[in-house]
Design goal:
Helices cover 37% and strands 18% of the residues. The chain has five helices and four strands. The strands form two sheets. The chain has a two-stranded antiparallel ribbon with strand order 1-4. It has one domain: Arc Repressor Mutant, subunit A (Orthogonal Bundle), CATH 1.10.10.2560. It is elongated and about 75 Å long. By secondary structure, the protein is α+β, with helices and mostly antiparallel strands. The protein starts with a helix and ends in a 9-residue tail after the last strand.
């Protein structure tokens, strides 16, 4: 997928090191009794310019631009346009959200 190649190969080395905390969020230690949640997602209706604006807002994109004095989206813009079709057409864009919910154990007072 074009977006995966952009994320990993084109701007991948420009993500800050702490980005791994977002990517491995489900694997982080969690010191609470975890509760299963229903799936959550964000849904939007975007045209191609909305998508390009979003990709341009990524910190890795901005770091790439500062380092290389050019827009890395130029490398995938033609592919995105071809895949999108009518660039004004609004399409459904979905982001799954990872949520972790837990219950903090309440310390019991000592028995007398």
């Amino acid at each position: 997928m074009v977006n995966d190649r952009y994320y990993d190969k084109i701007v991948g080395s420009f993500w800050p090191p702490e980005r791994v905390l977002v990517e491995k969020f489900e694997d982080l230690p969690f010191s609470f009794s975890e509760i299963q949640t229903p799936p959550f997602e964000i849904v939007a209706q975007w045209n191609l310019e909305d998508l390009l604006g979003y990709l341009r807002s990524w910190s890795a994109t901005q770091r790439f631009m500062r380092a290389n004095q050019r827009d890395p989206l130029e490398e995938i813009a033609d592919e995105l346009r071809a895949a999108w079709g009518d660039t004004k057409q609004r399409r459904r864009v979905i982001w799954p959200l990872t949520v972790r919910v837990g219950i903090k154990a309440i310390p019991q007072p000592p028995k007398k």
